[in-house]
C-alpha cells in the first residue's frame, strides 16, 4: 500500500512535468515562427529588398526606394500581428464562454455587427475620427453578441452549439444585407466601404494603429485574466457555481474582453472571418484545453496565421495582392466544414 501510494504521485508528477515541457517547447516554436514571419513580412512585397536596406529602414532611414518600402511594411506587419492575436484570442474566449466548438467572431455575427454599426455611423452620422470608428464598432459587436446569444437561447435546451451557429449565420446574412442596402444608394462612400468590408491590413500606418492600441490592450488583459474562470466554466455551470464562481459575471467579463478585441480589430481592418475558429482548434491539439495555456497560444497562433495569410496574399498575386480576409476565408471555410462533419457538434 505504501509503495503504491508513493509511485502514483511520482508518475502523475512526471506526466505533469512532461506536459509542461512539451507546452514550453511548442511555445518557443510558435514564437520562432512568428519572428520568422515578421521578418518575411518586411522583406516580401512588390519590391524585394536586401537585408542592408531592412536594417537601415529599421534605423529610420528612407533614402532609397527599398528603405521606403520597408518603412511602409513595418506598420502593416504590426497591425497584422495585433489583429491576428486579437481575433485568435477572441475566438478562444467565445468558444470557452459558450462551450461551443463552432464559436467564432465571424460565425456568431459579432464581426458583421461591428461592420454594420460602422457603416451606419459613416452613412447616417458622418463619423470620421478613428476613436468614433472604434467605439461604434465595439458597440455594434456587443449588440450583435447579445442578440445572437438571446436568439440561440430560445426554446428547449438553451444555447446549444448548433442553435448558436445557426443564429449567428442568419444574423450575419441579415446584417450583410443591411450593409448593402445602406451603401447601395451612397456612391460617395461605396468604394471605401466595399474595400474595407473585404478585411485586410494593406495601407496600414502608425496613425491607424496607435488609436486602437488602448482598446486592444484592455481587451487582451481582460481576456487573459479570464483563463481560470473559463477553466471553471468548462466543468459545467453547476460545478463552477459550486466552486464559488459567479457564472454570469464570469461569462460577461470574458465576453467583454472578446468584444473589445473584435470591435477594435474590425474598426481598423474590416471584418476578417474564420481566424477565431481555426486557431483555437489547432492550439488545442498541441497543448490541450487548459485556458491558462490555450489563450496565449491562440493569440500567438492567430498573429502567425494572419501574418502568414498576408504574406501569401502578396506572393500569389504579384505585382498585386489579395486581401487577407479572402485568404483566411479560403482557409477557414473548409476547416469549418471539416469540424461540422467529423466532430460531434456538442458542448466543449
From TrEMBL:
One GO cellular component term: plasma membrane
Alphabetized SUPFAM superfamilies for the sequence: ABC transporter involved in vitamin B12 uptake, BtuC
GO biological process: siderophore-iron import into cell
GO molecular function: transmembrane transporter activity
Principal place of residence: membrane
Transmembrane segments: 25-45, 77-94, 106-127, 133-152, 164-184, 258-282, 294-316, 322-340
Similarity field: Belongs to the binding-protein-dependent transport system permease family. FecCD subfamily.
Protein name: Iron ABC transporter permease
Organism: Ferranicluibacter rubi
Amino acid at each position: 500500500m505504501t509503495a503504491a501510494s508513493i509511485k502514483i504521485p511520482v508518475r502523475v508528477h512526471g506526466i505533469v512535468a512532461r506536459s509542461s515541457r512539451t507546452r514550453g517547447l511548442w511555445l518557443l516554436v510558435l514564437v520562432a515562427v512568428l519572428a520568422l514571419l515578421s521578418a518575411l513580412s518586411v522583406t516580401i512585397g512588390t519590391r524585394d529588398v536586401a537585408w542592408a536596406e531592412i536594417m537601415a529602414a529599421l534605423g529610420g532611414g528612407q533614402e532609397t526606394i527599398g528603405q521606403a518600402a520597408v518603412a511602409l511594411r513595418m506598420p502593416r506587419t504590426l497591425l497584422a500581428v495585433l489583429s491576428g492575436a486579437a481575433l485568435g484570442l477572441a475566438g478562444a474566449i467565445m468558444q470557452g464562454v459558450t462551450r461551443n466548438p463552432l464559436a467564432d467572431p465571424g460565425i456568431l455575427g459579432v464581426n458583421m455587427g461591428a461592420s454594420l454599426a460602422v457603416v451606419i455611423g459613416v452613412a447616417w452620422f458622418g463619423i470620421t475620427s478613428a476613436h468614433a470608428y472604434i467605439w461604434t464598432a465595439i458597440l455594434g459587436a456587443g449588440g450583435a453578441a447579445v442578440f445572437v446569444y438571446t436568439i440561440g437561447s430560445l426554446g428547449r435546451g438553451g444555447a446549444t452549439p448548433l442553435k448558436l451557429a445557426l443564429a449567428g449565420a442568419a444574423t450575419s446574412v441579415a446584417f450583410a444585407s443591411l450593409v448593402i442596402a445602406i451603401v447601395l444608394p451612397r456612391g460617395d462612400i461605396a468604394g471605401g466601404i466595399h474595400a474595407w468590408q473585404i478585411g485586410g491590413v494593406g495601407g496600414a500606418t502608425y496613425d491607424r494603429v496607435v488609436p486602437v492600441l488602448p482598446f486592444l490592450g484592455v481587451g487582451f488583459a481582460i481576456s487573459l485574466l479570464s483563463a481560470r474562470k473559463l477553466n471553471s466554466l468548462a466543468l459545467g455551470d453547476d460545478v463552477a457555481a459550486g466552486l464559488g464562481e459567479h457564472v454570469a459575471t464570469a461569462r460577461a467579463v470574458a465576453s467583454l474582453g472578446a468584444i473589445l478585441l473584435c470591435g477594435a480589430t474590425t474598426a481598423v481592418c474590416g471584418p476578417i472571418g474564420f481566424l477565431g475558429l481555426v486557431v483555437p482548434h489547432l492550439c488545442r491539439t498541441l497543448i490541450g484545453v487548459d485556458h491558462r495555456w490555450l489563450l496565449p497560444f491562440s493569440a500567438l497562433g492567430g498573429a502567425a496565421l494572419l501574418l502568414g495569410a498576408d504574406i501569401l496574399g502578396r506572393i500569389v498575386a504579384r505585382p498585386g495582392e489579395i486581401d487577407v480576409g479572402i485568404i483566411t476565408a479560403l482557409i477557414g471555410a473548409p476547416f469549418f466544414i471539416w469540424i461540422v462533419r467529423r466532430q460531434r457538434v456538442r458542448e466543449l
